[in-house]
């Protein structure tokens, strides 16, 4: 006899209705589907463009670090992949993308919005069986902890880019009457700084980070430093979903602003 799985599995409530909820439960998965789809389309187009990603002193977060055949001034770590025939963004984006796609929160979000597994709490999923993350391709979700280490490296590099964004361009050093300034600050600098702050909050509030700093300990009392870190990360973890979405918007906005500058569509709003 074949045992039913999914919503008709043993121990599940024998309710034939898809849901008894009367609220507009479908709004959240629909909004997630639309927003996430828009970001995927935008990021894919920008990643494959291979141009308009550097407007001195700003480098798009989609192309940082620029390790391929990059425009002058965009490579602060050399071009070891200069032979790469495609866009330089495709060399580096796999790491932040892999981190986000395997993120515990994002899994919940896109499982519900794209696979309807399940679409919402107390709403039956349409699938006949459930195998979880035990086979390909979903078993690859277990690589999340390793992508976290790569995401930290990327966040450090993006932080370095922010410091470089404060660096004045050569023709900006002379500001009149013999005075010089080595500092540049424009709207691009602000957007890049906000983006990096949100990326760090998203990365450090990750469930994997919480386990790394405080996991596998028998006694917190014998590890006071790790306990303090675990407590701090646990507080951040409560807002992990917000940081996930805020950082998604900020990285797209920073890239869009730099793209418009590089394409000569707009001029940078300079503060000093």
Automatic annotation (TrEMBL):
Keywords: Membrane, Transmembrane, Transmembrane helix. The chain crosses the membrane at residues 25-45, 83-106, 146-169, 181-202, 243-262. This is Succinate dehydrogenase.
């Amino acid at each position: 006899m074949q045992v039913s799985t999914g919503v008709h599995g043993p121990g599940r409530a024998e309710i034939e209705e898809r849901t008894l909820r009367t609220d507009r439960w479908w709004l959240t998965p629909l909004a997630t589907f639309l927003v996430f789809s828009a970001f995927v389309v935008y990021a894919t187009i920008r990643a494959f463009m291979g141009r308009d990603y550097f407007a001195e002193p700003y480098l798009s977060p989609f192309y940082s670090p620029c390790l391929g055949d990059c425009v002058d001034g965009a490579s602060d770590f050399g071009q070891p992949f200069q032979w790469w025939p495609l866009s330089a963004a495709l060399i580096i984006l796999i790491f932040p993308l892999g981190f986000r796609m395997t993120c515990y929160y994002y899994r919940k979000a896109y499982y519900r919005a794209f696979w309807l597994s399940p679409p919402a709490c107390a709403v039956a999923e349409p699938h006949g069986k459930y195998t979880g993350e035990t086979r390909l391709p979903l078993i690859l979700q277990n690589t999340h902890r390793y992508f976290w280490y790569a995401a930290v490296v990327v966040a450090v590099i993006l932080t370095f880019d922010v410091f470089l964004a404060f660096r004045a361009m050569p023709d900006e050093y002379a500001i009149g009457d013999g005075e010089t300034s080595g500092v540049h600050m424009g709207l691009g600098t602000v957007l890049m700084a906000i983006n990096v702050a949100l990326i760090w909050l998203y990365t450090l509030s990750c469930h994997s980070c919480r386990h790394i700093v405080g996991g596998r300990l028998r006694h917190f009392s014998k590890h006071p430093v790790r306990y303090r870190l675990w407590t701090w990360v646990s507080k951040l973890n409560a807002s992990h979903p917000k940081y996930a979405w805020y950082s998604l918007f900020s990285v797209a906005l920073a890239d869009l602003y730099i793209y418009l500058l590089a394409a000569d569509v707009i001029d940078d709003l300079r503060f000093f």
